[in-house]
Amino acid sequence: MERNVTLIALFAALIAVLGLVPQITLMSGVPVTAQSLGVMLCGAVLGARRGALAVLLFLVLVFLGLPLLSGGRGGLGVLAGPTVGFVVGFPVAAFVTGLVVEKWRAVPVTLAAFVGALLGGVVALYAFGLVGMAFVLGKTLPEAALLLTPFIAGDVLKAAIAGLVTRGLSRVRPGVLLSRS
Questions:
Q1: Whose CA is closest to 43, among 102, 87, 130?
Q2: Fewer CB in a 10 Å sphere around the end CB: N or C, the chain?
Q3: pLDDT at 30 over 80
Q4: Which spans of this chain does the record mark as coiled coil (predicted)?
C-alpha cells in the first residue's frame, strides 16, 4: 500500500517536472509540452488504475491553483481554455495506456507500452482534446482536427520514448513495473 502511494505521488511529480520543459504554443493555443509523455509513462509503468490515480493527483494539485501545467498554469481557469479536453482526458489516457500494457503480457513490454501509449496517450487523449478545442474555439470537429495535425508526429515520438523508458525500467528495476505484476 505504501509503495503504491509513493509511486503514485512520484509519477504525479514526474508529470509536473515535465511541465518545466519549455513549451511551444501553436496557433491553436494548445502548447507542445512533455507532460503527455508523463501521462503515458504513468499508465505504462503503474498500470491502468494506479496510472490514472497519479494523473488525478496531479490534476487535483493543478485545480487547487498550483502552477504545474506547462507555462506555469494552474487553477480552475485551465478548464476554460483550449486545452480543457486534454486536461480532462489525461486520466483516461493513462488508464487506457496502462490497460493495454496489463492485458498484453505475452507481447514484449516495449511494444505493449508503445501501442498502449499510442492508443491512450494519442488516440484517447486526442478524442478528448479535439472535443474540448472545438467547443472552446467555436470550431467544427474537422476544423479542430486540422489544428491538431502539427502535434501528431511529436506525440508518436513520445509514445516511442514511453515504450523505451518502460523497457529500460523493466530491465533495471523490474519491481517498479506495476503494469506487469
A1: 102
A2: N
A3: no
A4: none
Give the C-alpha separation, 126 to 110, whole Å. Answer: 22
Question: For 74, phi and psi rounded to 5 degrees?
Answer: -170, 170
Distance CA 88, CA 63 (A): 11
What pLDDT, in 10s, does the model give residues 113-170? 999 999 999 999 999 999 999 999 999 999 999 998 988 989 999 999 999 999 999 9
35 neighbors 25 (Cβ within 8 angstroms): no
Q: Partners of 32 in the beta sheet?
A: 24
Give the pLDDT of residue 32: 75
Q: Is the pTM of this model over 0.85?
A: yes
**Domains present along the chain, CATH in parentheses:** 2-180 (1.10.1760.20)
pLDDT value at residue 156: 96
Q: Quote the Cα angle for 64-66-70, to 5°.
A: 125
